Amino acid sequence: MVTPLRGLVYRLVVAVDVEGYSKLDALDQSLVQSRLSDVLDVAARKAGLDRDLWYRQVRGDGELAVLPTDADAAWVVAHLTEQLVEALADLRRAGTPLRMRVAMHCGPLTAGAFGLVGDAPIVTCRLLDAKVVRDALAGAADEDLVLVISQQLHDDVVRTRFHDLDPSRFRPTRFRVKNQVYAGYLCAGAPRRGWPNG
């Protein structure tokens, strides 16, 4: 059972959002939510992560999750993303494709009366909802997932190359929202070196 957030904590935040959800009717939205839940469960389990330990905030067509304090950020970026790509490929082969954006950032946050508050959830959601990220997914015809991470997470985690993370698979991006400039890195598909054959 997940422990409620108390006080200001520094955690890895992961957000996901499904492409084209608002254009669907109510029945198809319900089916997409069910498929998304299955994809997240399967991907986390295959990556060795327990979603029951995550602090999760549902967003209708997605989720904002805070991972436990002992989460290995490099492992999550590498293996959770890879397993999400695999799960989405399985859906496509089954004739029920799902495409998604995934955003990750590490920073301070706490629980508020109406959900998460602090820098980490704000930055993560800004990255997830950025037009440049939506456009990247729309333009990635051969991929069902685009990952965007904060510059800080890229510098602190991806550049280490732990768990075969491949910095060359990420490209920098910058955008402005509400007079604030955000910097991040985009990766279409899995972020590990040699994937899917390595």
TrEMBL record:
- GO MF annotation list: adenylate cyclase activity
The residue ranges of the Guanylate cyclase domain are: 12-128
Q: Which PROSITE patterns match?
A: GUANYLATE_CYCLASE_2 (PS50125)
Q: InterPro entries annotated for this entry?
A: A/G_cyclase (IPR001054), Nucleotide_cyclase (IPR029787)
One BP term from GO: intracellular signal transduction
Protein name according to UniProt: Guanylate cyclase domain-containing protein
Lineage start: Bacteria, Bacillati, Actinomycetota, Actinomycetes, Pseudonocardiales
